[in-house]
């Protein structure tokens, strides 16, 4: 048996082995949640590398925070990454104008592909937080909130003048634990495409007219409005989205939208 593996196996048994750094990889997850499988995979990897001098313990582990491929080496009792910096922020803010107050929500609006797909080229890898957030900022520059929520199909809640995007929790008795107590449920966004998109109807109409011409653009914008999952009538003005990436099962809040100025 590989001597390096024996050292790692013993450290794991003694609960002394740890991952250093902020990266979030499958290796971190497997070590914390399925340690036996992690050790079996590691044993095979080290056996394959047995003829190499000073082999890496873990190679090319994709980080779901920063999108980098990480290599780990054993130093003392830690698995140390070759790249220290990672994308660890979890709260982000973007703003858009809502001129008419007709705020429409969907995962991906009807006819949106020719209007907005070009924005995805800058941040095409959506498997990590860094580029997902980068895409969110790109869309906000075009007047649209667009943020990743996975397959959660979140509910839209309102309370006072604020809008919340997330899901209630259920206790062991299947009783609802409200995400936002005393709020009003306005519907939900079916996120088969893993994103929530929201913008003012007039913003979408302008994008559609620029792409399809005035007559056809207005028609397509109207169709997008009619097929949107949720439509809210809010006060016109400038709105801020606070978006969270560290969503917990016990508190599944993805975002809060609130008016900040006229």
Q: How many E-type strands?
A: 16
Domains, number: 2
- Give a short account of the largest sheet: 6 strands, antiparallel
Overall radius of gyration: 23 Å
> How much helix is in the residues?
25-40%
Backbone structural class: alpha+beta
Which residue ranges are poorly predicted, with pLDDT under 50 across at least 5 consecutive positions?
none
State the separation between the terminal residues, measured CA to CA: 69 Å
**Whole-number mean pLDDT:** 92
From N to C, what is the helix and strand string?
A: HEHHEEEEEHHEEEEEEEHHEEE
What's the shape? elongated
Strand content: 25-35%
Strand order of the largest sheet: 5-15-16-9-8-12
Number of helices: 7
What's the helix and strand layout?
Elements: H1 3-13, E1 18-19, H2 26-33, H3 35-48, E2 58-62, E3 69-75, E4 78-81, E5 91-98, E6 102-106, H4 113-116, H5 129-141, E7 145-148, E8 155-159, E9 162-167, E10 169-170, E11 176-177, E12 184-188, E13 195-200, H6 201-212, H7 214-227, E14 230-233, E15 237-244, E16 252-261
Parallel strand pairs: 1-4
Antiparallel strand pairs: 2-3, 3-4, 5-15, 6-13, 6-14, 7-13, 8-9, 8-12, 9-16, 10-11, 15-16
Helix pairs in contact: 1-3, 2-3, 6-7
